[in-house]
């Protein structure tokens, strides 16, 4: 799951992607998203699917 967090951070660094927008789409607070990005909280599969849609990447890109 740490790999997912690392890849999400990379995709968030690209133009047009924001942590606040992603948190909103995942129905998370920014603090909860930060916990997931730091590895303190696990990702749910539904969240991973939403992340790929929001960030415009393939699921394979998040491995």
Structure explained in plain terms:
This protein is an all-alpha fold and 63 residues long. The protein has one domain: Orthogonal Bundle (434 Repressor (Amino-terminal Domain)), CATH 1.10.260.40. It contains 4 helices and no strands. The model has no long low-confidence stretch (mean pLDDT 92). It comes from Coriobacterium glomerans (strain ATCC 49209 / DSM 20642 / JCM 10262 / PW2).
Binned strand content = under 5%
CATH superfamily (homologous) name: lambda repressor-like DNA-binding domains
Principal-axis shape equals globular
Shape-level CATH architecture? Orthogonal Bundle
CATH uppermost class: Mainly Alpha
CATH names the topology as 434 Repressor (Amino-terminal Domain)
Distance linking N and C termini? 8 Å
Helix-residue proportion: 55-70%
Catalogue the unreliable spans: none
Number of domains: 1
Structural class, by secondary structure, is mainly alpha
Rg result = 10 Å
GO molecular function: DNA binding
Protein name: Phage repressor
Organism: Coriobacterium glomerans (strain ATCC 49209 / DSM 20642 / JCM 10262 / PW2)
Domain HTH cro/C1-type: 16-62
């Amino acid at each position: 799951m740490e790999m997912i967090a690392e890849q999400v951070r990379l995709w968030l660094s690209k133009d047009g992607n924001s942590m606040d927008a992603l948190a909103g789409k995942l129905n998370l607070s920014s603090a909860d998203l930060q916990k997931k990005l730091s590895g303190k909280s696990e990702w749910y599969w539904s969240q991973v699917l939403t992340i790929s849609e929001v960030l415009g990447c393939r699921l394979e890109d998040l491995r």
